[in-house]
Specification:
By secondary structure, the chain is an alpha/beta fold. The chain has a single domain (2-203), classed as Aminopeptidase. It is built from 5 helices and 6 strands; from the N terminus they run βαβαββαβαβα. Strands 2-1-3-6-4-5 form a 6-stranded mixed sheet. Helix 1 (37-54) links the parallel strand 1 (2-7) and strand 2 (58-62). It binds zinc ion.
Amino acid sequence: MIVALDRQHVGKPHRIDDQGAWGDFDGDGKHDVIESESIWTALISLSAEMELRRLGHSVYPMSHGRYSQRHKDANKVGVDVYVALHLNSLTGGTRSGQSGNYGAVFYDGRSSRANGPALADAIGAELGKLPTLRSKVRIWPAKSTDWTSRAYSTIRGVRAPAICYEPAFLDHEHHRVFFENADSVSVLGQALARGIHAWGQARQGVT
Ligand SMILES: [Zn+2]
């Protein structure tokens, strides 16, 4: 399969300084570079790419353009799976402790059972194997008409089964274990890759 891994937030021609969400890891009230969503999604993307390639898949890494353009590019390439890479955070106006203690996988609410929901479930199953996220993985259909519309905008228009992957919260104390270094965060990328692979195998009828 060809898997598009889109490190979103970065590479927006109309918003060059977008780094996504952040978490105040050291509690100094300042937004340090290392506390940015876009830094960690880069490492998640790379670890997912390594695992997908190891499992025999091709990877189309993306990190440039408006999202609508990226979706067109993915369609043009003819990818089999598209993943918008994100991390969650409620920091900025809300007290810590109100943050979510879960990992989220959104799929296109209009997609068929064998595509969106099945792919999301397969990824969620792998994510739920991580001790920190056991029984804390949420799978949601993304739509343009409700609170999921922002997740929907990250994947809308992609013809292949598409996922918005938000495996952890940057500002939840239980999730800090992921954001220590490149090794600690790599489990989030590997879970994504294994879930995609498992879905692909199931779709081909391989057990
Ligand atoms: Zn984001």
